[in-house]
Amino acid sequence: MTINSKISTNSEASDWNPSTVPINTEAFAGLTVVITGKLLCLERADAELLVERAGGSATGSVSGKTDVLVAGDKAGSKLEKAKGLGIEILDEKAFIAKLGIVIP
């Protein structure tokens, strides 16, 4: 499934595809992005695909090379590490807005 069923179960949601939805293709250009915690609107794999479509690289661990952390619910230790390293932190809403997408 490409969108979390908690958000919408209408036919428009079932047609939503992270591979083809129009996005800001420069939103994460050249940036390394880590996604952590439970996302409410997107599946993690879809969020990672959107990062890549927006010119970024999605990785699984926070390091000094991480540029942005997308923090979902219960982000935990990755969020704390990102704060300690001074990494830009976006919540899911800000992540979606930066991509310029609309979730049905």
From TrEMBL:
Q: Which ranges carry the BRCT domain?
A: 23-104
Q: Which PROSITE patterns match?
A: BRCT (PS50172)
Q: Which SMART domains match?
A: BRCT
Q: Which domain of life is it from?
A: Bacteria
The cross-references to Pfam families, in alphabetical order and at most eight, read:
BRCT (PF00533)
Q: What is this protein called?
A: BRCT domain-containing protein
